[in-house]
Amino acid sequence: MMVRKFLAWAATAPAAERASAAASLARALLERELPAEEEHEAGIALSALADDASPLVRRAIAAEIASRPDAPRQILIALAADQPDIAIPVLRFSPALADSDLIDAAIVGAADTQMAIALRDTVSAPVCAALVEVGARDALIALLDNVGACVPENALARIVERFADDAPVREALLARHDLAPRLLARLVDAAAETLRSFVVSCGWMSGERADRATREAREKGYVILASVDAGGASAMAGQLRQAGRLTAALLLRSLLSGETRLLEAALADLGGVPSGRAAAHVANYNGSAFAALYRRAGLPEALLDVFRFALHAIETAGVDDEFADGGLQRRLVETVLADCERGGASGAQPVMGLLRRFYAEAARQEAREFAAWLARTQAMAAIEDGGQGREVAAVTATPDWAQELPPVIAESTMPTGRIEPALPLAA
Predict the structure, then answer these.
(1) At 209, is the pLDDT very low, low, confident or very high (cuts 50, 70, 90)?
(2) Which of 367, 353, 356 is nearest to 406 (CA)?
(3) DSSP per residue over 322-373, as a string?
(4) In the structure, what pLDDT confidence band is assigned to residue 344 with cuts at 50, 70 and 90?
(5) What pLDDT score does 405 carry?
(6) 270 pLDDT exceeds 70?
(7) Distance between CA atoms of 238 and 269, rounded to whole angstroms?
(8) Residue 193 Cα distances to 215, 226, 244, 252, 264, angstroms
């Protein structure tokens, strides 16, 4: 009887009154405020109101039941498929929706409803996989940032496949700690290619110069990623070998950045030896075992002494360039250049051009980082000075190496030596 009376009244009542009545009915039903014999009829009435023509009524019901674990599931499903402003609170907060409900909503929903699913306190792996397959860009960024989302590796790979060219998505991916090295390498490639396309389209560089700048940026990214841990370096070496980008130039850049892990991983991968043995041979770089593994890996014979010079420079000069920013270290490059110029490296002349470019790159980076540090230091001194506009005293905390800061040598003025662009490894 109650259902008939209520629905008869709702047929003619204004939408605002129906919305208020629907909210009250939902609240009374969920709080068990109704007599037991009326609960079933109240549920029927609420289900009917969930199909009301006015979004005011449906929105009022959604607001009342969205976060309730005991909400009628058939009503939740209906509201989850409603227009976005009604569906969003249900999809975002309802603990009563099953994964299948969320997957269906993700597939057919708009970008903002997908966002609501991505922002849930917990998002299971199947729901993540569905979102990753069809989700809009902003929803996937939210999913990547959500610590409660269980995003499996294959889903991360799919995001890379769909959005590697999108800078905000790349940033969200790189902020994670569970990205496989192969995916990190693909992101580095995508970022480098985006950089190349941009500078060429703007007319800032010729295609040839842009190709070299792209390769250098990509290699710097590889070195930084490989430096994270030994396991990452091993996976990175395998990925780069398969992509045809594990080159002698890259390995030399890695060493001159103060990083030996990528060389160790490359020797283990190419030479077919355990990583521990490869690391031991690298540590004893002047021994015959290192030379044998180097040759077995297919690295150029003419560069054996150059690699030894680089390893010796790391061992003796140390890795302490404060402003290298994860890139080439000027002191290491300078030391290896000096060793090569003294003629101690048999057949090293072809690599001199590359080493000089490395030196110019390291010097420019060092100068940029020092200038930025100096500006920050002077700004802080100005603040401490009281902001009165008085001249800031000379900075006294200048590091010792700054007294030796070399001039930034333009690449066009560097002595030239012929060198192949990438020095690929032997097959």
Answers:
(1) low
(2) 367
(3) TT-TTS--HHHHHHHHHHHHTT-STT-GGGHHHHHHHHHHHHHHHHHHHHHH
(4) low
(5) 45
(6) yes
(7) 7
(8) 9, 20, 16, 22, 28
